[in-house]
Predict the 3D structure of the following.
Amino acid sequence: MARKLALTAPLLLLLAVPAPPAAAADNTQQVLQQLDNSAKKFRSASADFVFKNIQTVPVPDIDQMNGTVYYERQGNELRVAAHIAQRNGQPYEAVYTYNGGVFQLYQKNVNQVTTYHNAGNVSGYVMLGFGASGKELSDKFEVSYLGQETIDGVKTDKLELIPKEQKTRNLFPKITIWIDPTRDVNLKQLFDEGQGMSRVATYSNIRLNQSISASEFKFKTNKKTRFVNQ
């Protein structure tokens, strides 16, 4: 399946009895308020992840990556690193980093670092992972409450996010997250790209507010490493 390697399925279950609009709005505000409160206590998180690029047309295909992700917040600053250990069941080493508004991808198999200077296109969905406040979400997305679901024994609130910025909406017209608002962590994310394309990320073994080595947000290069700017 030809696509850019990038950081995110079953059909969404329909609620048998949809909540009245007023109740849904109240629930949305309640969850956003919980996130505001939890974000004040959030410093860092790490988790194991499974990320699937899913194609349903014209030929069904799944590209799966497994690894570990790290989030760290200091005030309004966010840095993220995702270390990929396997791709489609085979060993594969790559590292994504997002720091200071700069998005980079290191691929060991080709010994190349790609820097994406137009990182504003991805910042809208990078920030919604872990530690985002309710205000941050509502500033960047139209937020709708879709009910509660239990994932791996954890009760989550399911939110639909429609990006307000056109650049982000061009990438992902609709995003669904399953979030534990008491810890401000996601257990699942669904990025709907339309035209039979989607990306699904699931998170487990979540470790909250533990010390993370600065080395996790870096990657090792050498004299032969190729640097590419996009």
User: Anything to note?
Assistant: The CA atoms of residues 121 and 168 lie 6 Å apart. Residues 1-20 have pLDDT under 50 and may be disordered.
